[in-house]
Amino acid sequence: MLLKSKDQDTLRRSKGKTLPMSKRLLRVIGQTNGEFKLISEGDKILVGLSGGKDSLALVHALKHMQRHAPFYFEFEACTISYGMPQEQYHALTQHCEKYEIKHTVYETNIFDISQNAIRENSSFCSYFSRMRRGALYSFAEDNGFNKVALGHHFDDTVESFFMNMFYNGSMRALAPIYKTSRGFHLIRPLIQTRESQLLAFAQENNLELIGDESCPAMLKDVKMPHARASMKAWLADIESKNKDAFKMFKASFKHIHDDTFLDPDRWDRDDIER
Fold first, then answer.
1. Percent of the chain with pLDDT over 90
2. Is residue 131 part of a domain?
């Protein structure tokens, strides 16, 4: 719903509590939005809110953006409940109420379904990730959202890039924005922020975070994932030896020379027929 008057716009900018967020962090998020055109006038955005540092930083960044952006957009938060025993989101709900963030806990039976869908002693984080994303998409589709926002940061995309290279034999990262098969866009407003910045935001504001205790893997005899943790440690070691490593990663992601790889479909050749 678009604003109807200047008075409403003034009210929107003045109302609502926000948590302090560093100017540097807000500047990176603002520059990312300007560069990739993630959020614009009239958008209705659904934020996947797990209760971790990244998604909490995202909803508060959007609160700041709502107050200061030269355009109007709406956003709501949605937490996917797996249907696990003793799953609790009361503190997260109270936090959203305190800061006037519309929040829904979307109940699912994902945990029950997983009992027959996944073998014991298997790593199934990817399974729950897909199921959680599907539930979030369904809620967005059913409630008229045109964009879904996730809290991935730049460390995530660098880790994903090297994991895809080492384990899948492909060169693939995390896009700032793309159109899903369901017709709406997925956006990542924090994609150029560092994880350390988001952790600092959470610590400075003494946020109560939801961590591994909300992971279904904690309740089953499964092999815990190690690839991402190992990748994170490897990258931390690289950065400890080269403080500009992540700056170079970011520059590399923006300067891609397609025709230098072993993929003929990406070469510009006029000496052969396609």
1. 70
2. yes
